[in-house]
Amino acid sequence: MCGIVGYTGKKQAQQFLLEGLAALEYRGYDSAGLEVLSPDGELHGVKCSGRVATLAERCKTANLVGTQGIAHTRWATHGAPTDRNAHPHLDCTGRIAIVHNGIIENFQEIRSYLRQHGHTIATDTDTEVIAHLIEDAWAGPAKGDLVAATRNALARLRGSWALAVECADAPGEIVVARQGSPVVVASTPDGAYAASDAMPLAGVTKHVISLEDGQLARLSADGSVQVYDADGLPNDHPMTLDIDFDASAATLGGYSDFMAKEISEQPEAIERLLKGRLTEHGIELDELSMTKEELASIDRVYLVACGTSYHVCLIARELIERWAKIQAVCEYASELNYKEPMITDHTLCVIVTQSGETADTLTAAKRMRAMGCKVFAITNVLGSTAARESDGTMYVQAGPEVCVASTKAYTAQIVAASLMTLRLAYANGSMDTGEIQRRYHDLEQLPDLIREVLSRRWQDKKVAKAFRKAHSALFLGRGVNSTTAYEGALKLKEISYLHAEAYPAGEMKHGPIALLEPGFPVVAIVPADHVHDKTVSNIQEVQARGAHCIAVATDGDVEVAQQCEDTLWIPPVPEEELVPVVAIVHLQMLARYVALERGCDVDKPRNLAKSVTVE
To answer: Could you tell me the pTM of the whole model?
Structure first.
């Protein structure tokens, strides 16, 4: 949610700023802008609602010459997504520019104060007040010290921020700060860089500094970076991270869109995650940072997440209860934050977040830790806030996920949850070594099973035509695959803007059946599992109302094929608990083809953000 980039150094800034914004498009946004300090000592900027491509076109005629600048993609929270509200924002003098990701909770109070003291507020945003507070500090005792002026302003704020500041009267210098929203900086021979995450910097460095809450950094044109703590004291040992992916991983590489690329990368992502995890003593999972005795004592697991990651939790609950024989509770992070969870000395909290920056999930993690709960994170982003707020972290190693709708991170997170469950099961004696090894080898089969489904994408392309004139759709599944239905419906909504609902198949007759009419698309997940026959009965109910039924079924299921207009075939899966990892691949591809049929941008769906950093 929102993207920040900044550069000061030897090169012209505009090219990196635009390329950096493009690399951050996956975060979701509705406007963009940049501000460059020119050799004449003035700030010159371009802003627009819409895409980075539109901004780049406007920049062609703007003559933005200069080796220092900041830029931003905005996801609107305060004020409509207009040119006027796009970042960067300036102070009254036009000498200070700022970009910001986060929420300023007391901005109304500060805005009133600023107006009473002669400031002109030009936008509807919460961010603009920061520029004016820095203006006041710069005019006072902090003049000549942009770090001090920024610290002075931040002391008056409540909320969260990652921000970058430049001042025409402090050439060659950018100040960056963090509180609750991620930002990284880098020092190179060509200059100093800042960005919301490492993605824009993969092409210029292999090492970044990840700021921690309360820290600021001064970026200088000679490429040096100085980090300061909240008191303004230099920090000579900041947190450094290695960029663990090649810059080409965030390029299309011959694919027409990132969603297609990332769907196809799922087998390799799972293989990386599984590699080296099995030992003669069970599953190697040092990330849990708990002794075998501590793991054996766990009697309840809270699984906490939002969106697609919440669906991972629903599947993890099934795994934990079936395999490890431990009670598991799933909670939306946004709901848990206003509940009173039942915590004991033996409760484990598992947070699942692709970005590691989901605000609701992080708030829940902090709260659960404060209540005495051990917190374990499953995430995809190295050095993310989730890792810092947790007692242990498992990185799913899916690689950069640029498409806003998650695909490869979802399946990798399910496999990560499976490994965690096996470790718990071994610790408490629910499974012996032989059983652990068998389940692990079942997991090892998943990449090739997914490759087989990928080879059948023509089935999804054909079936997508059934949704061309639809206004809604229904997804059904039983047991663990009711969650596959939830995730399939979510994917369809996210990228095709076609309304879809998902229900446990047995619940269809308790209301949703009223939607059915001739031609209405219904997707039923009906693999060869212990509830197969019950789901077939629900398919017959669908057929009796004339709806268009599309089954996701196991190879050779003649009965289902005869009762449905279309079938998306999956190969046999060794454990029914693992079917969701294979079956969802069809529904990911189906959603993509439906979106393309409807003329939608599958990588950048409207209104959505990859990393939701506000509550």
So the answer is: 0.82
Residues making up the chain, counted from first to last: 615
Question: Is residue 206 among the annotated active site residues?
Answer: no
- In contact, 481 and 503? CB cutoff 8 Å: no
Alpha helices in 321-407 (DSSP H): 333-336, 359-370, 385-388
Which amino acid, 178? R
List, for the chain, all residue ranges whose pLDDT scores fall below the cut of 70.
1, 244-250, 609-615
Q: What is the pLDDT of residues 123-180, one digit of tens each?
A: 999 999 999 999 999 988 778 899 999 999 999 999 889 999 999 999 999 999 999 8
What is the per-residue burial (b if ≥16 Cβ within 10 Å, else e) of 523-560? Answer: bbbbbbbebbeebbebbebbbeeebbbbbbbbeebeeb
Over residues 496-533, the pLDDT tens digits come to 999 999 999 999 889 988 888 899 999 999 999 999 99
pLDDT of residue 418: 96
- For residues 319 and 314, what is the distance between their CA atoms, to the nearest angstrom? 9
Task: Report the alpha-carbon distance of residue 387 to residue 393 in Å, rounded.
Answer: 6
Single-letter residue type at 345: D
Q: Do the beta carbons of residue 522 and residue 513 sit within 8 Å?
A: no
Determine whether 176 is exposed, middle or buried from the number of CB atoms within 10 Å of its CB (0-12, 13-18, 19+): buried
Q: Which residues pair with 173 in a beta bridge?
A: 220
- CB–CB of 43/69 below 8 Å? no
Catalytic residue among 47, 374, 491, 610: 610
Give yes or no: 604 in active site: no
- Hey, what are 436's tokens? 């652990």
Torsion of CA 378, 381, 386, 390, to 10 degrees: 60
